[in-house]
Amino acid sequence: MAVVSIFRTHLPRIALGASAGLLSGFTALAVAELVAGLIRPAAGPVTVVGGAVIDRTPAAVKDFAIRTFGEDDKTVLQLGILAVLALIAAVLGVIALRHRRAGACGILLFGAVGAAAALSRPDSQGIGDILPSLAGAVAGALVLYFLAGRASQESGAEEGASGGRWNRRGFLVAAGATAVGATTAGFLGRYLTGRQAQGATASRQGLVLPAPASPAPPVPKGVQLKVPGISPFTTPNADFYRVDTALVVPKVDAGSWRLRIHGKGVSRPRTYTLDDLLSRPLIERDITLTCVSNEVGGPYAGNARWLGVRLSELLAECGVKPPSAGGRADQLVARSVDGMTLGSPVEDVMDGRDALLAVGMNGEPLPFDHGFPVRMVVPGLFGYVSACKWIEDIELTTFDTYDPYWVKRKWARRAPIKTQSRIDTPKPFARPDAGTVVVAGVAWAQHRGITRVQVRVDDGPWEDADLAAQDTVDTWRQWSYRWQATAGGHNLTVRATDGTGQVQTEQRARTIPDGASGWHSVFVTVT
C-alpha cells in the first residue's frame, strides 16, 4: 500500500514532467524540420540520424529488416527513431523538474548528435547541414527549461491554493501555445520542403522522351501466360520493387543534373547534361532487375522496358578501354546524389550487353523512386553492383584501390545474377481442390536466359513445366505445370536451367555475401 501511495503521490508530477519533455522534443523536431526546409530537406535530424544508423547497421541486420518489413523498412526505422526520441524526451522532462539545466542540456546533447550525424553523411554539403539539428535542439532546450519551471511550480503548489490554480492554468496555457507553435513550424517546414521539390517535379512532368533509335524488339506472343496469380511479364512502375538506403527520396531537377566521367584510364574526362544524353541515339530494352537481398522465392525482382544511352559508348567516348583491351581500370564506381557508391566490373559493362544509363521506364521518365533523372541498368548483375539510382558521377578505378558502400559492409565485390525460379501460384498454405491445379511462376538468369523449368511434387520425380515464350535472355520467363492434385498435404518445388545448361543449385545460401540460392517450395493442402 505504501508503494501505491507513493506512486499516486508522484504520478501527477511524473506526468507533468513527461508532458513537458514530449512537447520540448516535438518542438525540437518541428523547428529542425522548418530549418531543413529552408536549407536542405535531407539535412533534417531524423533523416541524418537514420542514415547514420543504416550505415552502421550490420549487414545481417539490414537483411533481416528487408526480409521482415520489405519496402516499409525505412518507415519502421523512422518510427523507431521517433519512439526512442519520445521516450528520452519524456525522461529528460521528468529530470528537468528537479534539474532544469540538466534536462535542457540533455536536449542540446541530442542536437549535437544530430549535427555530428549530418556532417558524417556522404552527401553532406558542409557546415550548413548542422543548422537544422542545432536550431531544433536550442528551441527544444528553451521550451523544456520554461515548461519544467511551470510544471515544478504546479506540482509544488498546495492543493486548492490560488497560486496552484494559477500555475496549473499557466502550465496548460504555455503547453498549448508551445504545441500550436511547434505544429505551425512543422507544417511550414513540410511546405518549404515541398516547394524545394517543385522544380524537380516540374522538370520531370515537362520531360518529353525522344523516340528510341533502337526500339525494343517486339515482345513475342505467349510471354504472358493466362494463369491467375502469376506475376505480369512487365512490372508496372508502381509495383516495381524498391530497395535502397535513402530515407528521403532525392528530387533532382533535370535542368541542373550533371554526370561526370573521370578517373583511371579516362583520357578525355567529360561532364554530361541530360540534354546531352537525350540528343544521342537512345536504345530501348526489356530487362529484368533483381536485388541481392531477394530471398529464395522473394519479391525483389521485376521486369521493365528501359530507355537510355549505351554506357559503353559514353565510356569509349571518354577514352576508357576494358581490361581485356588493355584498359587500366577494372572497376566503375557510380555515385548517386545521396552519396551511395556502387562498383561494377568495367569488363561487364563494356562486353556488348545492353548496359544503360536509363532515362525512361515503361514509356515514361524514370519515377523519382527509381532514379530520376538518370540511373544505371546492367543486365546480369545484382543491383547493388550495377543499378545506381540518381547517378551523378562515374569514376574509373580498380577493385584493389576502392571498396564501394556495400563491399565495405562485407558483401561481395562481384555479383552476377544467380539462376532462380519462383512459384507464384498456388500460394503457401493454399487449399486448392483436388483435380487439375495449375502451378505457375517465373524464372530468371539474366544475360543467360532460361531454357528449362521443372516441378517436383513431394519426393517424386522432376517433371518438365511448360515454358512461356522467351522475350530475351535478359528478361525473366514464365512457366506453368498442370498438376493432378490428390487430397492431402503436398510440397511443391521448382528448379530452373539457364542458357548455359547450368541447373539451379539445391544448396541453400543466405543473401549475404552474393545472393541467395536454393530451390523454392510451397506447402499446400488439397481438399
Describe the structure.
Helix content is 37%, strand content 21%. It has ten helices and 18 strands. The chain is globular. Helix 6 runs antiparallel to helix 7. About 2% of the residues have low confidence. Strand 5 and strand 6 form a beta hairpin. The longest helix has 44 residues. Strands 2-1-10-5-6 form a five-stranded mixed beta sheet. Strands 3, 4, 7, 8 and 9 form a five-stranded antiparallel beta sheet that branches. A four-stranded antiparallel beta sheet has the order 11-12-16-15, with no helix packed on it. By secondary structure, it is α+β, with helices and mostly antiparallel strands.
Cα end-to-end separation? 60 Å
Tell me, rounded to a whole number, the average pLDDT.
92
- Characterize the overall form: globular
Largest sheet: 5 strands, mixed
- Global structural class: alpha+beta
Strand order of the largest sheet: 2-1-10-5-6
- Relative helix content: 25-40%
Strand content: 15-25%
Low-confidence stretches: 157-166
The overall strand count is 18
Count of runs of 4 or more consecutive helical residues? 10
Helix-strand topology string:
HHHHHHHEEHEEHEEHEEEEEEEEEEEE
Radius of gyration: 28 Å
